[in-house]
Amino acid sequence: MGTPGAAMFRAKLLNRGQGAPAGVRLWETASSFRLDPKTLKQTLCSPLLHFCTQNVHKLGTLTTLVVTFPIKLSKVSQAIAALVGLAATAWAQTPGANNYPVGNFPKFIISADLRNNGEMDVVTANYHSGNITVLLGNGNGTFQTEVNYPVGEWPTGLAAGDFNGDGILDLAVANAWDPGSLSGPPCQQCAADGVSVLLGNGDGTFKPSVYYAAASGTAWVSAYDFNGDGKLDIVATAWFAGQVSILLGNGDGTFQPPLNFPAGIVPHSVAIGDFDGDGKADMAVGNLYSSDVSVLLGNGDGTFRSGVTLKVPSMPHSIAMGDFNHDGKLDLATANESGSVSILLGEGDGRFKAAVTYNSGTDTTSVVTEDFNGDGILDLAAANAGSTPTEGVSISLFLGNGDGTFKTPAHYYTGGPGSNAVVAAHFTNNDGFLDLAVAHFLSDVTMLYGNGTGTFSLSPP
Predict the structure, then answer these.
(1) What is the DSSP string of 3-15?
(2) Structure confidence by residue, pLDDT tens digits, 123-152
(3) Residue 157 in contact with residue 220, Cβ under 8 Å?
């Protein structure tokens, strides 16, 4: 039994036999105190939002292990660190796991050809370690040893583009304060936020990062030429300011001071496209705490005006864009924390139809759109951080019907513990089929290899 102001937590490593799903679970056993996920998030100033539910990964024949933490409220973070360490140890012992180590708590992942050699590479933004990890591809679906580059505090977003016109891809990184501080003062250890730019050398390495200020709580970055001058610009969402920042590029790898435009409450993700058919770039911004999407219509000079606001079921962590019903008008897909994907079909004039929602998994945090089965129709891949109580992170693959609707999803379990999961689609093994890279919060990336039919496997063909 606990005492007032204290709580008893227990972590248990569950084993169900060779090849069976196993997991680590943390739960409170004291009757005198109870913490719900919201309270835990606010108390810890931490993005580990779901540690109090089942965090699962696949194990071999490890024996069952129980660890008990009698702790005071001020020591909750130590209990979480112990749980994460336990899970990380078990995950590292997984036989034959198709995972690649990266920095601590990868919050974002992209794929790009960083060396201009036709082979896709992977980059992650690592929230807790304050760096990015570059995994250079070998061209056969495997990757070289990771290389890390320091950036700002709490990196949460990534974008690739040629910012200085030398024909080599560069990187932009969003650096943010800890989202646990959204309901209170910022964490004492958090530094100023903004965008870090790393210019590429053409061989997969990068020059030291250069910092550019943006609005408060920079969370997501994308690259686009918003003013039509042939130079790439950067858009960054700003959690705390409730804005998006546009940093116009000078064409030499440097950027102008930000232009800020209002969005919703805690804007997080961005999709860029011409939503009203005027030939100018617009933006759709997913707002976490207002559970909606702000459409910002572009003026063609790097400035924006407010458009419609679109409701979605809950906290859109990610937003993707494509023509899902083949009518020549851009549509939107959002990944919602409620464990769903919402489709908003475009009217072509900057407006969208009401969201149609499909169940995905638990805590859907990322969505990408590609034609995964080669039928000329866009499909969706969504990453679910919580997944099921016994399987851990999963990818839900929705094959498109071509009319804006989608088939019942197939689920692929990548085995990594949840709390954060992001996905990127790319070609890694030169077989002409799209593959998926999935980032897990326990500092690794797992590959799912496409078979060209809309199915995937954990082993390269």
Answers:
(1) -TTEEEEEEEEE-
(2) 999 988 889 999 999 988 889 999 999 998
(3) yes
